[in-house]
Inverse folding.
């Protein structure tokens, strides 16, 4: 696996505050992201969720590492019992009455490469669905 982070961008027909709330408020996140029991956009806040397919589920362990209110959110993203650690960053850019979101997922190369569970293609497919379908439908639907 190469060391290049994955990057995704999408512009939503929604004001920046609405997008920020969607990525930082647990009740909003549950509607388009994952079923997260608790979330606070505060550095040091730890949260977890379980996700995967019908064959295999993974417990995700995350910790908020950077917050610039209304602009940027970064958290670590690792798996319980699996070596490796990565970082997910959401950056928001106001463009008139729309919001451009840039999502970066760095550190995927730290996960085991001896299984297809952590193949880059899986992350591409997952984030593409989350950003271009789930969040878009939630914000604009």
């Amino acid at each position: 696996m190469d060391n290049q982070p994955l990057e995704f961008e999408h512009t939503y027909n929604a004001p920046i505050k609405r997008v920020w709330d969607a990525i930082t408020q647990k009740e909003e996140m549950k509607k388009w992201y994952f079923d997260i029991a608790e979330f606070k956009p505060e550095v040091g806040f730890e949260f977890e969720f379980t996700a995967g397919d019908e064959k295999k589920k993974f417990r995700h362990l995350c910790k908020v590492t950077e917050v610039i209110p209304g602009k940027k959110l970064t958290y670590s993203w690792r798996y319980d019992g699996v070596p490796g650690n990565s970082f997910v960053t959401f950056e928001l850019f106001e463009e008139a009455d729309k919001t451009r979101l840039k999502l970066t997922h760095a550190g995927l190369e730290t996960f085991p490469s001896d299984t297809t569970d952590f193949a880059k293609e899986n992350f591409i497919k997952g984030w593409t669905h989350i950003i271009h379908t789930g969040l878009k439908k939630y914000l604009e639907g």
About this structure: The chain has a mean pLDDT of 95. The first strand starts at residue 6 and ends at 12. The helical segments are 16-24, 26-32, 120-140.
